[in-house]
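#data-curation
PF: Archiving a pair of folding outputs for the training set. Convention for this channel: one message per protein, sequence first, structure tokens after, nothing in between. First:
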Amino acid sequence: MNRSSRAFIALALAVVLAPTAFADEAAIRKNIGERIPQFPKIDEVSKTAIPGIFEFRIGSEVYYTDEQGNYLIAGQIVDTKTRVNLTEERVAKLTAVDFKTLPLKDALVWKQGTGERKLVVFADPNCGYCKKFERDLQAVKDVTVYTFLYPILGGDSPEKSKAIWCAKDNTKIWRDWMIKGTPIPETGAQCDTSALDRIQALGKRYRITAEGEAFLTANRPAIDALMARIGPAGADGSHGVPTPVVRAMENLRVALRLRLRSGPLDQAATETIAAVLDAAAQTVERS
């Protein structure tokens, strides 16, 4: 076979195979979009190492499906030969942030001990869970904390954020408010708050939203109880939990995510979900 013949065959194969791959992606986008309308638009579709299984990505969230989008697989893929959690590895790459690229000049900064370890936090001044986290940080040694004011919970969050940012010693005002509940001084001082606009854009880029914080705050005791018995992570990323429990936890995570994306929770729905979580937590504790 001469060189020109080989080139022609290769070109012919490329022409035949390319439409097939495109058809798979088109079918996945169409069927997932139509059948699960609460899902945001799919950002990327790609093949996995498993024949017939495709990954589709929404932001930094990874899901799997077949070539027609007939099945949704929410969970983790582990390479049993290498014991590498391929899903965690993929998500880690998607969510990786180059610390050097962050606009740290727009952050409130405080240091404890040597400050050797670096931590970046996005926080709303009205976020209950953020206040708990800020208090918990007091026990962390040798850390520098960079806090980006991120008012996304509504109400007077934007006004509080501006008042904190414009304060003469804004880091102290922030910490006093979050840790001690000391009222934020109403000085009426005006300053350049363009940093808050830049932080808003940064948060949107990394898909930092209010829904997760709101749900965690409302259901913190139940979720803590569910997770309290999880041991150290194993090599397969399962945290030492039996496979059926991992599967059930993934199902819960996906169900909550889908429900939250379908629209706001009314009082009845909130109480129903909270009751189910409470019941599950009690069952776990009795087991």
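PF: Second:
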Amino acid sequence: MTNGGDEERLAEQAGGLGAEGLDDEELLAALRAAVSARRAVPEEFVEAGKSAFAWHSIDAELAQLTYDSTHSRDLSALTRAETAPIRALTFTSTRARIELEVVESSLLGQILPAQPATIEVQPRDDAEQAIAADETGCFSVHPIPRGPFRLRCRLTAGSDILTGWVTL
């Protein structure tokens, strides 16, 4: 049991309620509500966690980002004064390579070795968009997703490749 001073202090922490006028059950309910509110996880954290693990199929092979032109040390040797307007990214898996170029308001891509596929653009905060890659493996995403996104490539051979999250 607690003394009257402890009950009053606990009730104040539970939302500014005084112990006066509350019976034990009301006080305990107020304390439970305060503890629950403190433990609540923000909704955006829950959604980010769900999207990180929300694979349509656990069999999708992860493609690792193996090249990003914004981090390339090879570009430092160039003598051009202006920077290149194109950003290039390469994702590599054991089955295929996905090459991307960011140009103006589009994202141009190609799957290598060349093959038709269905590309799903999966933005973190928006609806998915399905795009067809032609027989040469080429595809175009327009407009470029505004926030973090990833690509899921469903190859005609039956395998799925999932890129990591990227923000352009």
